[in-house]
Every structure is written in structure tokens, then in C-alpha cells.
């Protein structure tokens, strides 16, 4: 292969878009195929009854990762979308109506901590310092580093042990913070990437410092506008985009152990010199190869692989506004550890819940008609391994959520909803081809991280690459976009190897 080689990218989530742009910057001919009619994957945008909704990601951290994609072509992201930094990052509301307002202003954070427990202020400062130490290893050194050998993990073990990566996020936080309310606040981050704070490796505590370093941002018009900006860039630089292309098979020549192209459910075949798959790798290995590829060595067997929780997402619009409600609110129910155990371990649906509430109209009034508000509420639930009948449970959960919000942070909500719809884990399985309808692919456990996560390059088929939440470094926008950087390194290595082989045979 040379710079005129053809790369096919399957899936137009942020991992796929970033990979397509990085491959194009190498001079490769790039075709991006997407099963749905619109791009963005889980970052699609919906509009109903005059209300706009981002389908999934709403929090932009580490915005430089998107800036880099434009800089590859000498362009500026500011010419494609408008980004603003939020003053209030999250409001945490507890079952007894106590509130913790989490902002970028560090002095304000100290004051908020002191309202709950003054003695935890020094502990928080130590936590932040340790989070920075984890960040310097986990993000700066490892997030864009490929893991292709167990030796690479072995070399890291002394650093990982020193940083206590064997601890869970909750235990890490509890070693510095003693107030139970604050323990919940500062251990919430794993839930943003599909993990249980009581089992997720404390490597993910780096998110805390990551937020402090770059802040929390919002794209005016929503995350869908970010997708639109990146799509415009892709078209400008000559990336071919095909929507409505549902890949049925990634075609592998078993004699050569090479990918040769893809076949759609409609029977259309596209030839390729390499394929980059942006989706759930577990689904791909189970369903997309003419002869099943074995899972990479180091991966847990399928039977014991642990998957992230499922997501129930309720989108709604109101005919009145709730100006006292922040852009992001995390509403924590009476149960915490036991509720998470029900979701992640027991995999049973419960009547109670904790919620993430997104009110984009707090920042951007264009999301709703004048005098109205747009919302979505994200409710962690068990994935489809629970056997939950979402045809039955979906509307019941909708009513329970609305009733609870109506009696707490959105008073009178039941009477002012004028538009609503929802997605369940069953929809995630159907729409996003996610095994078990998991919201974030496999869970972010220590035993499912780095080398023990799905490889960014198949070890046997070396022109087959993977990006997205199920691959290294993991879920969340920084993780997904960083997975494209990892794959970028591997593609460079592959092209060099191929070039050397061509020289030898010339």
C-alpha cells in the first residue's frame, strides 16, 4: 500500500470521524460508511415538536482533541462551530434536597466542600494532586499509546501499583474524603464512561483533574453542531461519505489473513486496503466475519466479559422554563451502592433510580421554542443481560421519572410536558449494534483495560483496526477520540511495514 491506498471506516461516531480524518491526512483515499441516514452515531441530534435534543454526549472535555483534527488540514475549529465554557459544571442534588454546586472556580469548590465538611477541604486538595499524578501517566503517557503485547503492561506495573490503580475509584476517593455526600460527588465520574465507581479502576480518577485542566464546555447548537462541523471538514478534504450502508460482513481473505473489503446487507461490495471499525468490537467479532476471528489474546472469554450498564434516556420539552435548574444536574436517589449493585451485578430493574438531567436551554435558548425548555434525562439501568422487557418497562419508567422530577427539582413537570420520547437498552442494541444494549461496550475494569481491552489492531489481521468505546483507552469523548490517535500510530507502523515488504520484493 502507498499513499493512494483505500481505507474504509465503518461507523460515523466520533471515533470513526476522527479516524477518517487522520487517515485522509496521510494521503489515503477514505470512504466512511454509516448504517443510519445521519452521521454522529450516539452523537446524533433529534428534533421533535420544535424541541432540539442531543442524542447522547453533552459534556465536552479536552476540547483540544477536536481542535487537532482541524489543525491536521491547517484549519481552525472556531470557523466550524462555537464552543463555550460553562461556569457551573454540575449541580448535585441529594435525596434530602441538599445541593453541591460544582464549578470551575476552585475557591468556590473549596467553599462548597466546607458546607458539608470543612475537614475535607485539605483532603480534596490531596485528591486533586493525586488525580493529577494519575492523569500524567494515564492520559498524557498512555491514552494514545498502543498496547499490543503483555510486556507493555508488565513494564507499567510498578507505576500502576504506585498510583494504586488496583483500587476502585470509590475507595480512592474515600481515602481522601470522609463525608458520605462528598464521596458520592467525587466518585461519580466512572458512571460517565459506563463504570461502577465501586468496581472501576482508579485510573479513571484522572477525569477529575482532566476537568480541572481544560474545563467543561458546550457546543452552541449542541453536540450535533460539532458533528456537522466535522462532516463539513470531511467533505472539504475529500472523504467519501456513504449513509444507509449497513455492513453485513468485513471480508477477510483467510489465506492471506488480510481484509479485502466490506459487504452491505444490500449486497454492495466495497474493496479496501484497510478497514477501521468504529463500533462495538464485541459485536464485530461475533457477527461480521465470514469465518469468526478469535478474540485477541489477553481478552477475557466471552462468558466472563463484563459489560457496561444500559441507558434509559428520556427526551422531553416543557411549555414553561425552569431557570433555577443548571445546564447539568446529577440527582442522586436515596440508595447509592446497593442501587449500583442492582444495576451492574444483580442486573435487576428497580423502582428507584439516580439521574443525570441535561437542560441545554440554560445555555442555548435555540433548543426550545420561546418560553420553553428542552431536557433529556439519562437513567442508568441494567443492560439486556437482565432480561428486562422494555416494551413494558419503558413507559412505566418514563412515568416514574416524570413523577419524581415533578415532586423535586422540576416542580409541576407532569402538567407542563408537551413533547417526549425515550430510548432503552433495546434501542441501543438495535440502533447502535451494541452487544447486550450496553451503553459503553465493555466495562472499564482494571482487568479490561489497556492490553486487556479490545485491541486497536487485530493481532492476526494486521490491516483491520478498531476505534471507539470498547477499545483502548476507553469510553467518553476523550477516550473515543484518543482511540483514533492510537490507531493512527498503528496504521503508520503498518504502512511502514508494508512499504518495507514492497522494497524487499522489488
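-> sequence recovered:
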Amino acid at each position: 500500500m502507498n499513499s493512494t491506498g483505500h481505507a474504509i471506516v465503518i461507523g460515523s461516531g466520533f471515533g470513526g470521524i476522527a479516524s477518517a480524518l487522520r487517515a485522509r491526512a496521510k494521503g489515503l483515499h477514505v470512504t466512511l460508511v454509516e448504517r443510519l441516514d445521519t452521521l454522529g452515531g450516539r452523537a446524533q441530534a433529534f428534533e421533535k415538536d420544535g424541541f432540539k435534543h442531543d442524542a447522547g454526549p453533552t459534556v465536552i472535555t479536552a476540547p483540544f482533541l477536536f481542535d487537532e483534527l482541524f489543525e491536521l488540514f491547517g484549519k481552525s475549529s472556531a470557523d466550524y462551530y462555537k464552543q463555550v465554557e460553562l461556569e457551573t459544571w454540575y449541580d448535585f442534588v441529594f435525596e434530602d434536597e441538599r445541593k453541591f454546586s460544582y464549578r470551575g472556580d476552585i475557591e468556590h469548590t473549596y467553599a462548597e466542600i466546607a458546607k458539608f465538611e470543612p475537614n475535607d477541604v485539605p483532603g480534596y486538595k490531596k485528591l486533586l494532586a493525586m488525580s493529577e499524578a494519575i492523569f500524567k501517566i494515564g492520559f498524557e503517557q498512555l491514552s494514545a499509546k498502543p498496547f499490543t503485547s503483555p510486556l507493555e503492561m508488565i513494564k507499567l506495573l510498578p507505576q500502576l501499583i504506585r498510583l494504586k490503580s488496583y483500587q476502585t475509584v470509590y475507595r480512592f476517593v474515600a481515602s481522601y474524603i470522609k463525608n458520605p455526600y462528598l464521596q458520592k460527588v467525587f466518585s461519580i465520574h466512572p458512571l460517565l464512561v459506563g463504570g461502577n465507581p465501586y468496581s472501576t479502576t482508579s485510573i479513571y480518577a484522572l477525569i477529575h483533574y482532566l476537568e480541572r485542566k481544560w474545563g467543561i464546555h458546550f457546543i452552541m447548537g449542541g453536540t450535533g453542531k460539532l458533528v456537522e462541523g466535522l462532516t463539513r471538514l470531511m467533505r472539504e478534504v475529500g472523504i467519501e461519505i456513504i449513509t444507509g450502508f449497513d455492513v453485513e460482513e468485513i471480508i477477510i481473505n483467510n489465506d492471506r489473513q488480510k481484509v479485502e473489503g466490506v459487504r452491505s446487507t444490500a449486497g454492495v461490495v466495497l474493496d479496501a486496503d484497510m478497514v477501521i471499525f468504529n463500533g462495538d468490537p464485541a459485536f464485530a467479532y461475533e457477527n461480521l466475519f465470514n469465518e469468526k476471528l478469535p478474540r485477541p489474546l489477553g481478552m477475557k472469554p466471552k462468558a466472563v466479559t463484563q459489560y457496561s450498564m444500559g441507558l434509559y434516556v428520556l427526551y422531553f420539552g416543557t411549555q414553561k422554563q425552569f431557570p433555577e435548574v443548571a445546564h447539568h444536574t446529577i440527582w442522586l436517589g436515596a440508595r447509592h451502592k446497593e442501587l449500583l449493585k442492582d444495576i451492574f451485578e444483580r442486573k435487576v430493574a428497580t423502582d428507584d433510580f439516580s439521574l443525570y438531567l441535561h437542560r441545554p436551554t440554560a445555555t442555548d435558548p435555540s433548543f426550545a421554542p420561546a418560553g420553553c425548555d428542552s431536557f433529556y434525562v439519562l437513567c442508568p439501568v441494567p443492560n439486556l443481560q437482565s432480561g428486562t422487557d422494555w416494551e413494558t418497562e419503558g413507559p412505566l419508567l418514563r412515568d416514574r421519572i416524570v413523577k419524581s422530577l415533578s415532586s423535586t427539582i422540576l416542580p409541576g413537570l407532569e402538567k407542563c410536558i408537551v413533547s417526549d420520547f425515550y430510548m432503552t437498552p433495546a434501542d441501543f442494541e438495535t440502533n447502535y449494534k451494541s452487544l447486550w444494549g450496553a451503553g459503553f461496550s465493555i466495562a472499564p475494569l482494571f482487568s479490561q483495560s489497556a492490553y486487556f481491552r479490545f485491541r486497536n489492531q487485530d493481532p492476526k489481521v494486521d490491516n483491520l483496526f478498531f476505534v471507539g468505546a470498547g477499545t483502548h483507552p476507553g469510553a467518553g469523548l476523550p477516550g473515543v477520540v484518543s482511540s483514533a490517535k492510537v490507531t493512527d500510530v498503528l496504521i503508520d507502523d503498518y504502512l511502514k511495514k508494508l512499504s518495507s515488504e514492497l522494497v524487499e520484493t522489488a
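The radius of gyration is 22 Å.
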